[in-house]
Amino acid sequence: FRSGEYRTDIAEQDGRVRAVLERLGALHGKRVLDAGAGKGRYAALLQRRFPDAAITALDVSAEMLRHVPAGITRVQHSLLDMPFADGHFDAVICIEALEHAVQIREAVGELVRVLAPGGILVIIDKNKEKLGALATPSWERWFDAGELSAMLAALGLAAETELVGYDGREADGLFICWSGRKPARPTAATHDVAAAPV
Predict the structure, then answer these.
(1) Which residue(s) pair with 96 in the sheet?
(2) DSSP tally for the chain: helices H, then strands E
């Protein structure tokens, strides 16, 4: 591949794809963001499955976005300050992109911010326990299950985690999927805790 390891397609049988499809459910007429989309292989797959969904592929690289298929909105931008209104998307996916964000907490905050109340967030990334299994740049971040779950919980989103397969392999611990639904509205308990005397 001339542009390195980044592929333009992915098999529907891939464990990461199955995890995304299972968690998102039907997306007919929904607004979906593929954050850190690369060449848009997940966005393209979702577009084929749900041609009436409004799919946006965001990536920092114009070169990558050139490969994104027609019919998908392309946005060249960083994960750290996405140019979308609060709650704009019904579903947000971020697959193997958060590891490149460097300012992880800010990026996670943005993923949750642009997700509509009641919307689903799916993050798939590499497991810190397997660090060293692949050659990676020194700045790339891998995560343990609890680390991202805690960040999401602090933003009001209770995430479930699961190890997922990839490239025709069964789950071997390399990839973790975090997924959760954004609360429809803040709970009274949240306000009580905030208002409680210290």
Answers:
(1) none
(2) 6, 7
Q: For residue range 149-194, what is the model confidence (pLDDT) as tens digits?
A: 999 999 999 999 999 999 989 999 999 999 999 998 765 444 443 4
User: DSSP label at 87?
Assistant: T
Contacts of 4 (CB under 8 A, 6+ apart): none
Residue type (1 letter), 10: I
**pTM beyond cutoff 0.70:** yes
Return the structure tokens found at 119.
């919307």
Q: Classify the C-alpha dihedral 92-98-101-105 as positive or negative.
A: positive
User: What does the block give as tokens for 5?
Assistant: 């390891």
Alpha helices, DSSP H, located in 32-103: 41-49, 62-65
Burial status of residue 52 (CB atoms within 10 A of its CB: 0-12, 13-18, 19 or more): exposed
Angle between helices 41-49 and 15-24 in degrees, nearest 10: 50
pLDDT tens by residue, 8-56: 678 888 999 999 999 999 999 999 999 999 999 999 999 999 999 999 9
Q: What is the pLDDT of residue 133?
A: 87
Is residue 98 classed exposed, middle or buried when 0-12, 13-18 and 19+ CB atoms within 10 A define those classes? buried
Q: Alpha-carbon distance 165 to 174, whole Å? A: 8
Whether 101 contacts 35, CB under 8 Å: no
Quote the distance between the C-alpha of residue 56 and its chain's center. 13
